[in-house]
Amino acid sequence: MHAGPKKAVDPSPLSWNPRGCESERFAQFCRKFLRLPDGNPLVLRDWQRELVASVWDADPCPRLAAWALARGNAKSTLAAAMAVYVFMTGDHDTSVDVVAVDERQAGIVFDMCARFVERNPELSSRVQVFKDRLVIPSRGAELACLPASPAALEGRNPDLCICDEGGRIQPEVYEVVALASGKKPTSLVLLIGTPGPQPDNVLARFRQHAIDFPDDRSQVYREFSAAGYEDHGTDCEHCWRLANPALGDFLYADALAALQPPKMSVNHFRRARLVQWVTGSGEPVLPSGLWDGLSTGIGIPDGADVVLSFDGSYSGTDATVLLAATVSPTPHIDVVKIWQRPTYAETDWRVPILEVEQAIRDACLRWNVIEIAADPYRWQRSLAVLSAEGHPVVEFPQTVSRMSAATAEFLTACRNGQLSHSGHAVLREHMGNAVLSEDNRGGRLVKSSRSRHSGRIDAAVCAVMGYSRASWRATHPRKRFRAASFA
Ligand SMILES: Nc1ncnc2c1ncn2[C@@H]1O[C@H](COP(=O)(O)OP(=O)(O)O)[C@@H](O)[C@H]1O
Ligand SMILES: [Mg+2]
């Protein structure tokens, strides 16, 4: 494609007489003006029309919308077609942004837009093509494809902003985009994507909001997914059909068959091809039997030097865990106590905070507690009270960088037999529930999905924290006679 504004452009309006509601007009535009790479006109399928109608025909028109679709179901193609439609048919000064996760992806979607224009003489005669944007000078209209960086997006004010790969976009980027919207009487931010590898991705949050607030008309959420069928195999054709409306049409079943695990990880396939909201790789964190092999079946003798590790929850969806680890280069780990909501029905159950505080005091009497490592989140007051009583509380905020480093050390120690444990049943269960979620900052233990029913992992996270501090204390003993240095 030759970039550059040199050619003369036709200032006359497009000649066409669309009828019907916005989604019908869009479908007519696609059929009349847009051609796919194979030269065929873009004929929207009913499910594509309905998706578009959910947003453009809604009254009131939502400001925010998200669609979750499996890979290969024309997310990027539809995004490009919608972008070109608004760009070509909008009012004066129409601006359309397509935001992609990175430069490369932005280039792919921009190319789709530019080629839609290029393949049709009526469109191409009206449009100037630059390196990364299309312009209609007579109307002051612009279509830009941008990489998802806050700097690139700050201060923009598009009528339509489509974020491709909404499951992988950084939350800060989405916030910039969403906050910038609303400066025009109508505008739409549309996220399209598959579930992201991180549990807290933008698309997953959007979906959770739709589940929690089904009456919120300011946003629209649609998904084609096999969510709820995570117990079915990845080769289940019923699940394939649920999540892939294009299957048997322009998406081929043999392509899904060819991608079966172990060619890709189980959970990657589930996210990308079945739109199931699972995180991590789906592989166990440790090889089968390894954790059990580290069990001695014995607790920690009274009076031993230990680090207490505490991971507190509030409502009981997660467990509150108090765990002890011996101060040693090869720590021995035991669960002191666990509090968790007895059944899911009792939603008003609360953690007995005073009982938890007392359990920590009792543990300090039982062992020689060198340190109480705790994530202060929501437990600041209890930790302040214990600290004021003279207990050695050390805050261990569970930040991404800290937990990534501690998790790597913990898993290495397990594999090398450099830790042991008492064989506590709940810790065993939580180790089995945890999956490893990896990104460029390292790996962390996470639940296998955001669902309330996915098993708890808090004791495993607490063991990571306890191992980290206990092994560190073994090599960095506290100076016992600090007062002497003032003499
Ligand atoms: N009716 C149709 N609508 C959209 N895409 C179609 C249609 N028929 C065939 N295709 C093709 O399907 C493919 C969809 O790919 P793409 O948009 O990249 O999917 P995704 O972004 O969901 O992974 C494209 O190659 C496109 O040309
Ligand atoms: Mg795509």
From TrEMBL:
It comes from Mycolicibacterium nivoides. InterPro entries: P-loop_NTPase, TerL_ATPase, TerL_nuclease, Terminase_largesu-like. Residues 68-196 form the Terminase large subunit-like ATPase domain. Residues 366-470 form the Terminase large subunit-like endonuclease domain. This is Terminase large subunit domain-containing protein.
